[in-house]
Amino acid sequence: MHLGFLGLGNMGAPMARNLLKAGHQLTVYDLSTAALDALRAEGAEVAASPTAVAASGAEVIITMLPAAAQVKTVYLGEDGLIARARPGTLLIDSSTIDPLSARAVASAAAERGLELLDAPVSGGTGGAAAGTLTFMVGGSEAGFQRAQPLLAAMGRNLVHCGASGNGQVAKVANNLLLGISMVGVAEAMALGTRLGMDAKTLAGVINTSSGRCWSSEVNNPYPDVLPQAPASRGYQGGFAAELMLKDLGLATEAARAVRQPVILGAVAQQLYQRFSRAGGGGLDFSAIIQDYLDEDGA
Length: 298
Ligand code: NAD
Known about the structure:
This protein has 298 residues and is α/β, with parallel strands linked by helices. It folds into two domains: 2-163, Rossmann fold (3-Layer(aba) Sandwich), CATH 3.40.50.720; 169-291, N-(1-d-carboxylethyl)-l-norvaline Dehydrogenase, domain 2 (Orthogonal Bundle), CATH 1.10.1040. It has 13 helices and nine strands. Helix 4 packs parallel to helix 6 and helix 12 (241-257) packs antiparallel against helix 13. Residues 6-12, 29-32, 35, 64-67, 70, 73-74, 95-96, 121-122, 124-125, 239, 243, 246 line the site of nicotinamide-adenine-dinucleotide. Nicotinamide-adenine-dinucleotide is lined by residues 6-12, 29-32, 35, 64-67, 70, 73-74, 95-96, 121-122, 124-125, 239, 243, 246. Pfam families: NAD_binding_11, NAD_binding_2. One of its GO terms (molecular function) is 3-hydroxyisobutyrate dehydrogenase activity. Its EC number is 1.1.1.31. Belongs to the HIBADH-related family.
């Protein structure tokens, strides 16, 4: 299939690579020349603008951009994908943005007779490289069916979450819980060790008891509890605290729009905001435990 792909960053570049590997023809666009050069070297055709991607003959166009502002820039306006895409083009936005913006851009597409699916992902850069991402998809059943074979080249779990915007709703709700649960595990591990318990033994008890969750079992924030976790390699790699801050912001903004209280989410957002300001934004989000430990990590 001939595909368009815009946004070749940490996630987009490996996703585009997997589409090339699956035998698709790709026309790509990014603001970064280095990102474009890398994909050109692997066989993609480079376009000079979103308009050029829309005019390239691509049957499906995928975007993987930082935030709602860039999504609106690329899709809306006279030179945007929606105005320029040929009739019948399927548009798929995999960026993580707030559900209300996703619905607004999708209805602008619908006004031109185009379907725009929201299809945010989880699984991080490792999942993007391995082609094992989870896609949470919002849009029509027919659109989901059309997208499925393409998404399968980049991901393993493809979930149709319902109507337009619901993919982003699922992503925002999950990451709201993840941010809160990580802070909870950090508090429990810090308290237990402060009271004299061995960190590995404590994690073992939690992980066979009712406190067990992904943050305790797979990404435990206490150093050297899990050899493969970011906490055991100086919090390098993993899911950046800055991105968790972004996702908690999306959750609290979406909650404000519907007057839904997210009390623990707001507290978690403030903790990550302070952590980011203090310089921790580039560390894995489990590093939030540093706010509960002494400087020597005890
Ligand atoms: P990134 O900053 O590495 O990449 C974004 C790319 O978009 C960059 O190459 C940038 O040059 C390009 N870009 C920006 N504005 C553009 C424009 N107007 N036109 C064309 N290209 C433009 O970001 P990322 O880590 O790849 O994340 C992308 C999205 O995926 C974000 O919404 C993020 O929240 C989400 N996400 C990231 C991760 C992760 O672990 N990195 C995991 C899940 C979801």
